[in-house]
Amino acid sequence: MTGPSEVVAAFDDPADNLAFDEALLRAAPEAPVLWIWRNTDSVVVGRGQKIEREVKADVCASDGVPVLRRASGGGTVFHDPGNLNITLVLPGLGLSGEAVKPLEALGELMTATVAELGLPSRLGDRGLFVGDAKLCGFAVFRTRTGLLAHSTLLVSTAAERVGRYLTSAPADPRPLDSHRSPVASLAEHGLRKGVAEVTAAVRVAAAAQLGELTTRKPSAGELEWHRSLQRTRYHYPEWHSEGAQRT
Fold first, then answer.
1. BPL/LPL catalytic domain spans which residues (predicted)?
2. pLDDT score recorded for residue 98
3. Closest to 237 measured CA to CA, from 34, 67, 60, 28
4. Helical (H) or strand (E) element with 215
5. Given a cut of 60, is residue 97 above it in pLDDT?
6. Is pLDDT at 34 greater than 90 in this prediction?
7. H or E stretch including 101?
8. Three-state DSSP state, 243
9. How far apart are CA 174 and CA 70, in angstroms?
10. Residue 192 has what DSSP assignment?
């Protein structure tokens, strides 16, 4: 069995980044995989969410901000270059055969990252909080062969940018609706770190949790899944608007 690795990849189109995010899981790695990435301005809804309940679609259209859909559950998030995304893909069973708990693993990773940066935090409802403000949001996706957990980490994204594109909590809450919380970035907490410094902290925390990571390019299997998912989901408008796949 290969050891844990960090895959290095970046795509210009946010939809292509989302496709690669899922491809890492579909490729069924035998050991943990870490991917650290960023998107240009975009809004990303959870797998089963309704755009009209989550997103100010008219404002997004006016500003040229695409509204996209990911494969995992969880709530709607705003992405921009000041928001770091951390993906952790795990085999379905740990090295000793025990069942893996992806949210716990991700929570441990992000808590250690923020501690490495010198900021106290607490785990809350599907995310990491500093005081009452959410700093990181979590979501998970499972297949028969593995588990994907990913997190946003607000490095410098201003809270008002998030509020510009996301709706307030609906008056008639439904199970798949986002759980709205105040948000604040590292910068808004007075921690003015660059993306490179925050990325280094993620790597330190991941190595302590998973063991030394080998840095690598995407595998042939990951790239094959990437192309397939681009065709069936992420380059298919109905996937983003309704969650429908191209057959």
1. 28-214
2. 56
3. 67
4. strand 214-216
5. no
6. yes
7. none
8. coil
9. 19
10. -
Please report where in the chains the tokens 């297949």 appear, as a residue. 143
Q: What beta strand segments (E) does 93-170 contain?
A: 122-124, 127-130, 133-142, 146-154
Q: What is the pLDDT of residues 182-239, one digit of tens each?
A: 999 999 999 999 999 999 999 999 999 999 999 999 999 999 999 999 999 999 999 9
Return the residue matching tokens 């949790």.
209
pTM for the model stands at 0.95
Q: Which two tokens stand for residue 127?
A: 């995310």
Report strand pairing: 122-124 vs 42-45.
unpaired
Mean pLDDT of 162-191: 94
Can you tell me the distance from the alpha carbon of 171 to that of 189, in angstroms, rounded to the nearest whole number?
30
> Could you say which DSSP state residue 170 is in?
P
Crossing angle for the helix pair 102-116 and 195-210, to the nearest 10 degrees: 130
Which residues neighbour 76 within 8 Å (Cβ) at sequence distance 6 or greater? 43, 44, 45, 46, 49, 54, 55, 166, 178
User: Could you count the other beta carbons within 10 Å of the beta carbon of residue 30?
Assistant: 11
**Cα angle value 34/154/159 (rounded, 5°):** 155
